[in-house]
Amino acid sequence: MAQTDSLYSMDILLDELENLLDQTEENDYDYTEELQEQMENSVYNQHDINDLPYEYAIKTLRMTPYQFYQLQLYIEQYGPLVTLYEIAAIPGFSEEDMERLRHLLTVSGQDDTKFQWRDLLRKSRHTLWFRYGRVLERQAGYDTTRSTHYAGTPGHVCFRYTWNMNDHIILKLAGEKDPGEQFFRGKQSYGFDFYAGSLCLKNIGLIKEAVVGDYRLNFGQGLALGSALLSGRGGGPDALRRFGTAIRAVAPCNEGDFLRGFALRMGNQQWKGTLFGGRSFGTLENHYGADLSWQRALFRIGLRAVCHTLTDTTQEGLSHQITSSFLPNGFNVSVDYQVLIKHTVLFGEVGVDQAGQVGVLQGTIYSMTPTTKAGVLVRHYDRAFHTPLGKAFGAASTNRGESGVYLTFQQIFSRRLTANAYFDYYHLTTPSYRCDAPVACLALGTSANCQFSRNSQLDIRYTLAKKSENQTDTHYRLINKYNRHKLRLLWTNTPHPSVRLKTGIEGCFNHYPRSRLTYSGILVYQDFSWSTNKPDISLRLRMAFFDTDRYDERLYAYEDDVYYAFTVGSYYYKGIRGYVVLRYKYKWLSVWLRVSRTEYLDRKVISSGLNQIDKPHKSEVKAQIMFSL
């Protein structure tokens, strides 16, 4: 069952990652840690169907809002489910849904869901993995004859240890050494240059979750507190909403976006309250606040307040770390709601900062028929709206100076054909990336999934974005408008249970009407996967060819990697890239080896500065070993 749950969740994460590829170049955000955390939680956590969170039902279990609505009505009328086989008797659920969900859910009343001290050690799980990777070619930064060079070795080393005691007490520790940094010598005499960890208590009496150490917060639609993964455009109507995962204890392997401090969440099935305090890692920003939410089966409302302060900077050597984007002694207050009315979901959040600037999100998802669904999301963020911990839906990297309306539509024509479409018109009232003036933008796209057979499917996606950027070849900073077209074809075929083939073709065209110039890029790749159970071995490889006129026409594609690592390859200029991933598992031991190489056909030197390679190729190797007990 655990293996089934893991594979199902992995497919969902890959679907989300595909939707995020088009936004990677705009926000330049690393989603690796969020994907790793979701993967770990999906493997360990199995929710009770009688206390099923709405966000988990919709996003992970892929229930429809109507199915969740009927499930709650069934529980209110007949009481908690006694067996998972009752799912087939609830309107909106088929026998196929029952067979799929009964492996992913539990029923209240089972002994293994109760908190018992004697089970903490008896049912505990240990996971420890180490990872090493490096670039094989010599980079300029490791030439000690240069005036500036790296002090450490070129290897990237990290580890993570997790001790899960029956999902009630969870301890996580992690450490990382970046390439070029010293390791157990010099300035890094304590080993890794970055350590992280957290201790979490879950579902012990009134304590829903208590964390000391590193954690992330996500409440409401993410306007005041948002750090969870956000699906990109084109994910369908159900991807409109942010799901309040509240507190998530983490031990990240990179110096990313998280808080270090404490967080406590208490309550029952209706009322929940949260208190937290901590510092954003690597900054002088301190945050503390509270959240209070009330929920019934079909309605939820939440209120939260967050205060932001700065550490004393009068000490010499600290003042340079303050950035002008952070306002000292600020705060945010927001209210969010969500109501489910038969086939309609209404949700939204309103927030205000210390200066009275406002941010608003209002969305609606409506299931017109069992096969037709539509969604609308309206957003407005004042030009000076300031929310340091916010990460709500939007086109810009920060939730300020933006107004827009997003429409999305999904149609299921048959079991073999599903189509999605979206339209996003928005106005940026502040300067944005590579554009120094307010502009109006448009993004639209359509996608279709064709299931030819049980073992063969084709995904087609087309997007059009009308963008603006600074024109750099003139004395005046003129705004140059251009149209960006992208087409993606992805065919997956499984000719044998142990063999999987994936063929991808992607194209990009940037057209500038003023100068009548067009720049293009193309990416073609072939994936091959093979696996066997006895012995437990898997092999995955890719061969890709890419050709782009400029860096601006770069293309992104998901790449297979070692376990708990998600890689999005960036393909630009002209060349060939390939990789091989080999995995071997024996009982509690798993080993991965990944080797990749990129050969450029139109240049002799790669990168610049300390990362410069005086060769037309770049090779990387990565190895990981994991112990699971």
Structure commentary:
By secondary structure, the protein is mainly β. The chain has a domain at 1-115. The chain has six helices and 27 strands. It has helices spanning 2-27, 32-44, 54-60, 65-78, 95-101, 119-122, and strands at residues 124-135, 156-165, 169-177, 194-204, 207-218, 246-249, 259-267, 271-280, 285-295, 299-310, 330-341, 344-353, 358-369, 372-381, 402-414, 417-428, 439-453, 456-471, 478-496, 499-512, 517-532, 536-548, 555-559, 567-571, 574-586, 589-600, 617-628. The chain has a 24-stranded antiparallel barrel. A hairpin with a 2-residue loop joins strand 17 (439-453) and strand 18. Helix 1 (2-27) packs antiparallel against helix 2 (32-44). The radius of gyration is 25 Å and the shape is globular.
Blueprint (SSEs and pairs):
Elements: H1 2-27, H2 32-44, H3 54-60, H4 65-78, H5 95-101, H6 119-122, E1 124-135, E2 156-165, E3 169-177, E4 194-204, E5 207-218, E6 246-249, E7 259-267, E8 271-280, E9 285-295, E10 299-310, E11 330-341, E12 344-353, E13 358-369, E14 372-381, E15 402-414, E16 417-428, E17 439-453, E18 456-471, E19 478-496, E20 499-512, E21 517-532, E22 536-548, E23 555-559, E24 567-571, E25 574-586, E26 589-600, E27 617-628
Antiparallel strand pairs: 1-2, 1-27, 2-3, 3-4, 4-5, 5-6, 5-7, 7-8, 8-9, 9-10, 10-11, 11-12, 12-13, 13-14, 14-15, 15-16, 16-17, 17-18, 18-19, 19-20, 20-21, 21-22, 22-25, 23-24, 25-26, 26-27
